[in-house]
What does this fold into?
Amino acid sequence: MSEVTALSKFACPACGAEAVWTPAKHALVCPYCGTESPAELSTDGTLVEENDLVTALRAIPDDQRGWAAARKTVKCQSCHAISVFNETRVAQSCDFCGSPAILAVEDVGTPIRPGSQLPFKIPDTQVREDIRRWYGSHFWAPNALGGKAMTDTLHGLYLPYWTFDAHAECPWEAEAGHYYYTTDSKGNRTRHTRWEYASGHVSHDFDDLLVPASKGVHPKLLEDLQPFPTTTDLLPYDPGYLSGWVVEQYQIDLVNAAQDSRRRMDDSLRSLCASQIPGDTHRNLQISPEYTGVTFKHVLLPVWLVSYTYGSKTYQVAVNGATGKITGEYPLSWVKITIAIVIALIIVGIILSMQN
It folds into this structure.
């Protein structure tokens, strides 16, 4: 797709301004005149393709790189996130940490084009209210951050992820421990463990195991945002869904993501094998997994993000743009903690004085 085609495809048919994908209406809407664009976006999720990992690691064709639309790229000098957005937009601060230290970059390599995306479904109006309620439910957070100002920095972002599929055949060996008890002449009961050899086999299919490729959102939040409905709701990549939105370019490449996915699969298989071991406990578990049919996808997933600074630390609150699930960080109010300690000490003092 040429840049001219990409730009004209998302122009408002009434006034010519750039139309923006709007979750509340599930359509491209002009932010100036309100006209809904007749642009036809991909809706057939069956067209989402899996890519063979071995073939891809050897070479990614040039026609699978780039964004298939004119985009501008900047890198934050504070959190190092690489943001990609509409060519006409002027960026004043980082959407991930709020830092004004952002620089336009040209030579960041031509990224592997996403094969699919999960469009935003939760509108910003609902997200703002949900975040206020979420924050208000955390008693130990400072009261000052519970107001409207906290959601003023709300941004909708498409974050990069890799997904991996594989079939695993995993034989295992371990020592299974069985508890038994003895009682001595004084009636003291002692627990012992009888160890015996055990083995077995686990067959397991991994489907859309997610590996985040974001540097802009704190890792713990990325894990807590899951699950995303990638197995049911993914759509083939279409730049129209990104119109008016910021996209983070991946900084964890396919090679490192594949290695991470292998570690995650190994850990999952270890847990599955451990659940098969008979007895009360086990030790020296050894697994020997073999993987076949390993495929991957590069996908963009929707996240609403609030970033704010309290004291000298940056905190983030993230919302899954497809399910509405909220996860976040918040500072502790030392005023509340101090008051609670003082009250606790007073209560302890009263109890002790009554006992005396």
User: Anything to note?
Assistant: The chain has a mean pLDDT of 81.
